[in-house]
Design a protein that fits this description.
Helix content: 55-70%
Number of strands: 3
Strand content: 5-15%
Structural class: mainly alpha
Distance between the termini: 26 Å
Order of helices and strands: HHHHHHEHHEEH
Number of domains: 2
Strand order of the largest sheet: 1-3-2
Length: about 180
């Protein structure tokens, strides 16, 4: 993967987007080789944080044939990113469990495992998500979302004619995780 990335970046085939495309190729290659089940490894954050080393090592492969350090850099990127991704997933699971418990205690009449899952599919939800996933009416979905908002789990935001319900804790957690 590290060698493919180096070769792709060296030929620089596109006018724009070579970095993003190269990082997508990394993930797709790992999936192809069955080293990743899902394409969820986002090594871009590591590369951006260590940009100076990234460009220095790319140049050293070209000029000094320094493949060892380049490969070690990419392996480190994968390891750090995989650990961070695992931590992110574990924390989201804990947040889901916390939300599930709160719903069971505060809103037992509307609680369901499926409802909790809908609330964690995205950092926001819409009436349509509940209607489709829970097989309930728009009126019932709207009632559920209003109850969740009243209990401090969601916050309604209007964008144009659309209404979105932000999962407050999930949204705040993801914001913090992105900025770390």
């Amino acid at each position: 993967m590290a060698l493919i990335h180096y070769q792709f970046e060296s030929i620089h085939p596109f006018y724009d987007g070579n970095g993003r495309s190269g990082r997508i190729l990394n993930v797709l290659y790992l999936v192809l080789k069955e080293l990743l089940d899902l394409p969820i490894l986002y090594i871009s954050s590591y590369i951006i944080k260590h940009k100076t080393s990234y460009y220095r090592l790319l140049q050293e492969v070209r000029t000094k044939q320094n493949y060892n350090e380049w490969i070690l850099y990419m392996l480190d990127a994968i390891e750090v990113t995989a650990n961070n991704s695992s931590k992110l997933i574990e924390n989201i699971e804990k947040l889901m469990q916390k939300t599930q418990k709160e719903l069971q205690e505060k809103l037992p009449k509307i609680y369901s495992k499926d409802l909790v899952e809908v609330l964690f599919l995205h950092p926001y939800t819409k009436i349509e998500f509940l209607v489709d996933r829970l097989q309930i009416t728009r009126k019932t979905a709207s009632k559920y979302l209003k109850e969740l908002e009243k209990n401090g789990l969601l916050k309604e935001v209007k964008v144009g004619r659309n209404r979105y319900f932000i999962n407050i804790e999930l949204f705040e957690y993801l914001k913090r995780a992105i900025n770390e």
